[in-house]
Please model this.
Amino acid sequence: METIEQQKALADRILDGLKVISPYAILAGGAPRDWYFNEKANDLDFYLYTSAMTLHAAKKQLAKVLGIDSSQIKTKSRIDSSLYATMQCLRTILDVEGFDMPVQIMLLNKPKDEFKVVDVMSTSICKIFYHEGKIIPKQEFMLTVKTKIIFLDEGYSWSDPHPTKIVNRFKHKFTTATKERAMERLLDSLAEV
Model:
């Protein structure tokens, strides 16, 4: 895709379809983060819960609302999904073909998971989402932006695949530390004013 606006238009179109399945479907993590920094996204990761009882039924449901054939929806292998292995609310990751950029649908375990999925992302720099045409950063994301410190969510380690990927991606822009250290840095900067 050529521009961020074109990527957002595609995200809006996909979200419009996904909202037929769940009005709480969101685009979260990498794309909204990249857009926040005025950069094009590499892919679009949508999170939602479906009441479909089987994976086959979920794929048919998704194909119908997205206007594609169900053969264009592929289940990721366990190796591919190892980046998300510690994300307990995640049921299945689906790759969706037929769009101008890579699209993934992250199916969640329970309906209420839609309200907490961003809060349990591995690193603070990923705690941001896109919904109803707006980029919505969580408090942890903004703390990282202000202090230039990325910190982990509970239950994650810097050696886990996803945090390792994030550290490598942002090593020239941010450092890593604890949330407490980020809070100290923020308070120090306020004291200097």
In short: The helical segments are 4-21, 30-36, 55-66, 139-147, 161-170, 179-191. The longest strand covers residues 90-96.
